[in-house]
User: Fold this.
Amino acid sequence: METSRNAAIKDYINSLFIREDVDLLNAKKCNAILPNIAIPENVGKLLYLLTKLQNPKRILEIGTLGGYSTIWFAKAAPEAHIITLEVNPDHASIALDNFKSCNLLERIQLLEGDARATLQHFVETEEPPFDLIFLDADKENYPLYLPLMLKISRPGTLILTDNLIPKDEQINKSLPQDGISNGTYLYNSLLAAEKRLETILITTIVGSKGRLDALGASIVIE
Ligand code: SAH
Ligand code: DHB
Ligand code: MG
Assistant:
């Protein structure tokens, strides 16, 4: 009952407030052969508005898939340089095709490889800080990403994190062997305890059944 009501709410909001442009629609079509785990349209519009508020010049995305979310960021920040990290070469290749189709290759740099190694490299080579970081990759390792993201941030950096409510029925209880749920709940508790961050989870309605998930929004304050 509640989930179908949630799905109807999502459809209602989307029908009023979401118009994907030709680039987003085209990317979505080309991404049909990939796992169906890109952000939904409503999360895309939320990221888009948060990005406009932040007015970032340098954006880092961790987890590209086919670049659907990357394109939302590019639309929201037409001047920004975007670096997006992807470990799977098949995903990276489709994402590059999509960026090319929307003439975004000049300002989107896709770095292939394990994102944690890339972040470590950024720290070692003193890569300038990012104004906005979007984490949407391996959930079991979310806790390991947090200190790395903080190292490439400045006061004022906006850190956004996808999928902060795991799919399980019970909230904040996960089986010992469930790496995704354990990683996510541990990450949430680290966000809450982190003195350098102010954070809230913005609940989102996702999937055809209207499940509740959340997007983490954290501002680096020191
Ligand atoms: N942000 C995308 C969806 C990303 S799905 C969108 O909304 O359109 C998660 C992606 O993270 C997958 O493509 C997966 O291959 C990638 N990934 C998983 N672990 C990774 C790692 N350690 N380093 C880099 N990418 C990783
Ligand atoms: C799923 C959804 C996501 O947004 C993601 O990043 C990974 C997996 C999923 O629905 O399984
Ligand atoms: Mg996600």
Summary: The helical segments are 2-17, 22-30, 41-54, 68-76, 89-101, 115-124, 142-151, 179-193. The chain is about 45% helix and 20% strand. The pocket of magnesium ion (ligand 3) is lined by residues 39, 136, 162-163 (CB under 6 Å).
